[in-house]
Amino acid sequence: MITLKFHVLQPLVAAVFLAVSCAPPSPKEAYQQKYGAPTVSTVEEYRRQVAQNPDRELVDLRAYLPDAVFDVVYATSRNFMGEPVYTSPGAYLCRPAAVALQAVQAELAEMGYGLKIWDAYRPYRVTVAFYEHVLDSTFAASPYTGSKHNRGCAVDLTLIDKATGEELAMPTLFDEFTPKAHVDFSDLPAAVLQNRELLIRTMASHGFTVYADEWWHFDFRDWEQYGLMDLEFEELESAEI
């Protein structure tokens, strides 16, 4: 057996410690260091959070809204970034928001309408990428505070005609960052104003508040009680809660 003297081990231990301490931070750690926003960034943290409060679970909207149309544009190149920023077309919300959205869909169905979902829960890393791309916190949430999307408490959507699957006429396309997207913009055809009002009113009756600069963006009540999340959709699937 080879025995190393302490004076030989000492520099080896120091070298290992230096290598570990000088290792570059992971992307998630780098975001937190740069912007100071604490996030739930491991599956283990997420499991502990949900064990303490089941409402914190991010649930798959496809299971709650089987009749909705899902067009998760950030999993494609059809978005303002010009490239996919999601690794898969996931659509998740915290459980209470998903249940509330079920009620929205049921009410709309009685009028012959349905929902098209563009985005829901968004990993914090994507909020960082959006902000660093546009450098404007009006249309991209500040990474210093994070987005309500990162909390599983925001959803981007529109109305469709259930009979045809076609979108109802709205003021702008999704993610069109112009004054026409503001909910108070009124120089629009009467039918468009009526459609926008129907969407806003129906969502509001079930706990969702529209974001003033984006007619398609809705925040769920009590979002302040939910922490920022930085888990990929695949990590949520692997959590097996």
Would you mind describing this structure in some detail?
This protein is an alpha+beta fold and 241 residues long. The chain has one domain (26-239): Muramoyl-pentapeptide Carboxypeptidase, domain 2, CATH 3.30.1380. The chain contains 8 helices and 7 strands, in the order αααβαββαβαβαββα. The chain has helices at 6-21, 27-35, 43-52, 61-64, 95-109, 124-134, 190-204, 233-239, and strands spanning 58-60, 69-70, 92-94, 113-119, 154-161, 208-211, 214-220. α3 (43-52) crosses α8 (233-239).
What's the rounded overall pLDDT mean?
Answer: 90
Structural class: alpha+beta
What's the CATH class, please? Answer: Alpha Beta
Name the quaternary structure: single chain
Layout of helices and strands, plus pairs?
Elements: H1 6-21, H2 27-35, H3 43-52, E1 58-60, H4 61-64, E2 69-70, E3 92-94, H5 95-109, E4 113-119, H6 124-134, E5 154-161, H7 190-204, E6 208-211, E7 214-220, H8 233-239
Parallel strand pairs: 2-4
Antiparallel strand pairs: 1-3, 4-5, 5-7, 6-7
Q: What features would you highlight for this structure?
A:
241 residues; alpha+beta; Muramoyl-pentapeptide Carboxypeptidase, domain 2; five-stranded mixed beta sheet; two-stranded antiparallel sheet; 8 helices; 7 strands; globular; disordered N terminus
